[in-house]
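#help-structures
NK: newbie question, is this the right format to request a structure? protein is Putative Flp pilus-assembly TadG-like N-terminal domain-containing protein
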Amino acid sequence: MRDHNRRNSDQKGAIVIFFALLLPVLIGFLGLAIDLSWLYLNKQKAQAAVDFAALSAAQKVVENPAAASAAATTMAAKNGLDPVNFRIEQDEHGIANIVRLEASKGVDLFFLPLFGYREWALHVTAAAKAYDRAAPVFRYTIFAGSDTSALSLSGNGNTINGKVRANGGLDITGTGNQFTDVVEYGGALSGMSGNSFTRLPLLMSPAPFSLPGWAELRDGAVQSYASGLVITEMNLNGILYVDGDVTVESASLSGSGVIAASGDIRITGTGARYNGAGSRAAYYSRKNIFVSGDGLQVDGVLCAPAGSIIVSGSTNRLVGALTASTITLNTSQSLFFYDASAVGLLTGKGAQLLK
C-alpha cells in the first residue's frame, strides 16, 4: 500500500512539474494570440484611414496637386498615420489623376515586450483615381433597369407625370392610376384595365442606361458614417455614405448631392418639404426606401435598384425620379419628373479606390 501511495505521489509531482514548465509556454501563446488580434484590428483601421486619405487627395489632384498632397498628409495624420510616401501618377491618357499613398503606424503591444518587441510598425498603402463622369440623358419619372425581372407597380388613384420605363416586364396592380406620358416596357405588360393612359404603352428594347455602382458611391464619399444616421438638419454637398440605415425626419435638408446607405432609407414628415428651389438630392439604398407622411414633398431621385420603394400616407408629392424593382404607392400620390442628371448620382466629379 505504501508503494502504491508513493507512486501516486510521484505521478502528481511529475504533473505539477510538467504544468509548471508548460505554463510559460501557454502564457506565451495566449499573449501572442492577443497581440496578433490587436495588430489585425489596428491594421484594418489603418487601411481604412489610408484609403480615406487617398480618396480625399484624389478629389483635388487634377485641379490642385499641391492641395492633394496636403489633403493626404492631413487626413493621414488625423487618423494617427505617418505618411511615408505620396506620389501622383498619370492614367493611360496622360492625365495626372491617380494618387498613391504609403503610410505607417506604430502599435504598442501587450505581451510581446516580454520578448523584446515593444512596438510593431504597420505599413499600409492605398491608390485612388479621380473621375469626371459626363451627364447621361435621363428622362424617366419611374425607371427599372433590369431586363430579366418585371417592375411591380402597385397602388390606387395615383398620378404619374412623366415617362415610365421598365427594361423588363411591367406589372401594374391597382386601379384609378393616371399615366400622363408614355409608358415603355421590355417584356410582358399586365394591369392596363382600370387605369388611364394618355398614350398607349410601347414595347421597347432595353434602354442602355445604368446607375453608378455601390462601390463608386462609397469610395467617392466626402462624408462617411460607420453606423446608422438620423438627419434633422443638413446642407448636402457631394456624396454622404452611411453604413447602416438612414432616417430623414422633420429635417431642414438643402444642397445637392447623394445620400448613399447600405441599409434602408426612411423619409418622414407631415407637410414638410425636403430640398426644392434648385436644391435637389438623390437617395440611394442597397435595400429599401420608405416615404411616409401626409402632404410631404420630396425633391429628389429615389434609388433602390435591388429593393423596393414604398410611399405611404396621402397627397404626397415626389418631384424627381424613382428606380426600384418594386414600387408601391398608396392612394393619391403624385409623381413629377425633373432631369435626374442635375444631381450628383448621375454626374459629377469624385474619386474611387484602385485595387
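mod (FA): yep, format's fine, and the C-alpha cells are attached above. The longest strand covers residues 297-314.
NK: thank you!
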